[in-house]
Amino acid sequence: MSAKHEDPTVVPSGNGNGGEGELYGYLAEYDTPGELKEAARKVKDAGYTEFDCYSPFPVHGIDPAMGIKRTILPLLIFGGGFSGAAGGLLLQWYCNAHAWTWNISGKPTWSIPANIPIAYECAILLSVFTAFFGMWILNKLPQVWHPLFRSDRFLRTTDDGFFLAIDARDRRFDAAKTRSLLQDAGAIAIEDVHHDPDPEKKVMPKWITAFIVASTAFALIPFAIAAKARNSYSPEPHIHIFPDMDFQPYNKSDTTNALFDDGRANRGEVPGTVARNHLQADTTFYNGLEMTGEQGTTTAKWVTGFPAKYPEEGRPFAVDQALLDRGRNRYEIYCSPCHGYDGRGQGMIPTRVAAGGGNWQARNLVEAPQANGAGGVAIQMPNGQLFNTISNGYNTMMGYAAQIPHADRWAIIAYVRALQRAQNASLDDVPADQRGSIR
Amino acid sequence: MSALTKSLHADEKIKPGKLGSNMVKAGAGIFVLFAIISIILGSMHGDNYKRFLYAFITAWSWTVGIAGGMLWIILLHYLCRGRWLTAVRRISEAMSLAFPIIFIAGLGFVLPLLFGYKDLYYWAHPDAKNAALNPHMVHKLGWLSPAMFALRYAIYGVIFTGMAGYFAKKSREQDESGDPAISTKLRVVSGPAMILYSFAMCALAFDVQMSLAPKWYSTIYGVSFWASGNIAAFAAMALIVLWVQRNGRLTHSVTEEHYHDIGKWMFSFTFFWAYTAFSEFMLQWYGNMPEETVYFKYRMFGEWQWVSIAILVGYWAFPFVFLLSRWTKRIVPALVFFSVWQLVFTWVQHFWRVMPQYDWETTFHENTKLVEGPLMGSIARHSVGLSAVDITVWIMMIGVLLIGVGRGFKGNLIPTKDPTLGMSLAHEVM
To answer: How many whole angstroms separate alpha carbon A349 and alpha carbon A327?
Structure first.
């Protein structure tokens, strides 16, 4: 150990391909992290400021030894996180409560608990960005053109080398004194490090600058396209990114196909046949119609009761609690948005129309038509006509045949009948011993 | 001369001497005095000691969380080959050795339940079996029955006592033999032990606290319970380490770097607790299903909303902002302030969990039996304020904790032959 200290190998540099330029400074190597720390303390105590230490791993206590103040990065990160949280809240306020208020099931447009997750994520995002980019910027990294990289010895700093480098620009730098200081501090090797003689290589390489400028410019292209599209009209069709998904080799319904005589892409059923499970001969169940008379002279009228059985399953049709429960469940899903839970036509959609200043009400299902225009015809319809209304629609109401199976339509009719009865009930319908509780 | 390890200072005092027995004596005095006061105050409530038992569960949760947090940091220390803790690990071990005493003290609410006390947990009330009254609860009654509850309580006691005892015993054996294989062995055991710990701690929280609201459910409850326990655990650890140092022990070995790390754990669980508690609240609030919101509705409106706001500000926002900084964890008086603060607010948090459920009762309305109060989210019946018995029972349980921790001060106060001791003594927060 001591021999090394007395006679450190002094190695002139000159490893750079372009020869030697002006002196950058001295690079001193130390044997252990502890010796590096001691050397740093001596260099600091001698009044140097333009020097830095390099080691493969963080060395405990090196910061005070070098006289480095604590970083302000944590404060910046706090500021970043705080701005993120505030920005996230502001974004949500602007979008939801200011620029585009949208009534979603009557929920408030501005509500702190619902906004916390976004604000939290924004706080994390900005504090992490501040930490990551702040670390690079405060350390003035990356500097791939740094003259120390011209020393082969210095490359060991990522493996097992502990280095201290003093910049020749330090006002206390003196070729002989500085060298002996490093030597006295126990250096096992001291190297002169020179800048590259090519002045181009002393600054950030042009290709990095070009890359940053070019990638910034490319990053603006999507915004530019979006801005152009927002402010111009185009006669061209949309861009098809996946044309084979947009244009597939099959015929859509109700289009043409020259292959067939009739030119239609749709192929009809073969005459005289019925597809499996499509017979639906029970007109009461499937159409709400009661057919009388022989074939060819039949007359149809609306069914007034309920079907006798479920034709597909064969079990008898019963108007019981289970049917009413099912009907209520389906009614509240499909019918109540317009007709309301009580059937008086004041569902969520009319309520929303009224909130927007309009005036539209759904048909009142539970009251008979009145002279002032209130009420509706549903209460007077036979069951079969109600069934037909649900299946095929009525005035502006579209049919629900695609959404509601036949059996569920009958369940809804049973529930609507119960609703009509309940909405028109009088106090006499309530058992005598419970009247007191609702009066 | 690398600064990565250090050897134990020659003048270091590492024998506890009378520290442990003094602590046990102080704890026993506090326990006896406040047990008498609490029982008298409890009987004055005229509710068949229901209030006393609710205060008991609040304080017991606080106590078990402290021992639980200390056992957890020991498991984690071995599991990821931690180093910084080694110098203060004996304090953690002593605190985790309080488990047997805590579980014996907990019999104070388990035994009445076992002998037919029906006013504490609604599921132990005869009405709970009424399927018309509790259609969504009766199926749980096989699990939530006094005998099953007591059985599980015993299992938790055995698991926690056993794990804490095993890790402390092996660590002391290493002081004798200096065998580094013991550290390896404990590292191997700590993995399965951590899994067992997690399940046991969650189940304990479900049983003791969450079943006070037997119709409500929250799968994150156990995590939240454990997180708040860890806040209190590290807060209490900072105070006990300081007390040990003030008594002339470990004065060279434990530095502000160790306080800094204890403070960092307290800080991280302050945030983590808030994260779990908000996750629990947010999903149920947004989902807006009556069987879930019942729990928060009772706490969001009326008198309890002020407790909720106090917890949000006092248990999270204020300590979070200040513990972010380095100095609050490295300057010991600041750390002591926040430790005491978080110990108090951990109790407030348990109070907020437990005490709103106190108000349940069954009443008759027009020949129909109804369950009112917090079980149904009815906020019209708020009547719970702070009672003196809540505080005295808490102090009584602090006595229990001191007895348990004092008993844990055995052998050396520092693991002298632990292979990681040198690195812990040289520990430095970068």
So the answer is: 21
- How confident is the model over B180-191, as pLDDT tens digits? 999 999 999 999
Give the residue, B407 or A199, on which the prediction is more confident.
B407
CB contact under 8 A, B281 and A113: yes
Cβ–Cβ below 8 Å for B3 and A60 = yes
Segment A422-426 shows an average pLDDT of 87
Q: Average model confidence (pLDDT) for chain B?
A: 91
User: Shortest CB distance from A78 goes to which of B2, B278, B324?
Assistant: B324
> What was the pLDDT predicted at A437?
73
* Residue found by looking up tokens 């119709």 in the block: B215
Give the span between the Cα atoms of B17 and B241, in whole angstroms: 15
CB of B430 within 8 Å of a chain A CB? The answer is yes
Between chains, do B3 and A58 touch, taking CB under 8 Å as contact?
no
Flag whether residue A49 sits within 8 Å of chain B, measured between CB atoms.
no
Please state, in angstroms and rounded to a whole number, the distance separating the CA atoms of residues A16 and A195: 9
B1 touching A (Cβ < 8 Å) = yes
Q: A379, A389, A384: which is closest to A423 by C-alpha?
A: A379
Asked if B131 reaches chain A (Cβ–Cβ under 8 Å), the answer is no
Q: For the residues B193-214, what does the mean pLDDT come to? A: 95
Comparing CB atoms, the residue among B2, B278, B285 nearest residue A34 is B2
What pLDDT, on the 0 to 100 scale, is given for residue B371? 57
CB under 8 A, 24+ apart: contacts of B387-391: B387/B41, B387/B45, B387/B51, B387/B55, B388/B41, B389/B38, B389/B41, B389/B42, B389/B45, B389/B51, B389/B52, B389/B55, B390/B51, B390/B55, B390/B58, B390/B351, B390/B355
Pick B295 or B62 by higher pLDDT: B62
Task: Identify the pLDDT of residue A19.
Answer: 62
As a whole number of Å, the CA-based R_g of chain B is 22
pLDDT of residue B381: 54
| DSSP symbols for B382-427 | ------HHHHHHHHHHHHHHHHHHHHH--S-SS-TT-TTHHHHHT-
Residue A172 and residue A174: Cα distance in Å, rounded?
A: 6
Chain A CB contacts of B281 below 8 Å? 113
DSSP, collapsed to helix, strand or coil, labels residue B67 as: helix
Q: Which pLDDT score is estimated for B150?
A: 96
pLDDT for the residue A435: 79
Residues in chain A within 8 Å Cβ distance of B428: 60-61
Instruction: Establish whether this prediction's ipTM goes over 0.90.
Output: no
Closest chain A residue to B4, measured at CA: A60
Q: Name every chain A residue with its beta carbon within 8 A of the beta carbon of B426.
A: 60
Q: Which two tokens stand for residue A202?
A: 């002393």
Q: Is the pLDDT of residue A271 over 60?
A: yes
What beta strand segments (E) does A250-383 contain? Answer: 289-292, 299-302
A60 and B285 within 8 Å at the Cβ level: the answer is no
Subunit contact B3:A437, Cβ cutoff 8 A: no
pLDDT tens per residue across span A344-362: 988 999 999 988 888 888 8
Chain A interface includes B426 (CB < 8 A): yes
Residue from A36, A55, A60 whose CB has the most chain B CBs within 10 Å, to mutate: A60
Chain A partners within 8 Å of B308 (Cβ): none
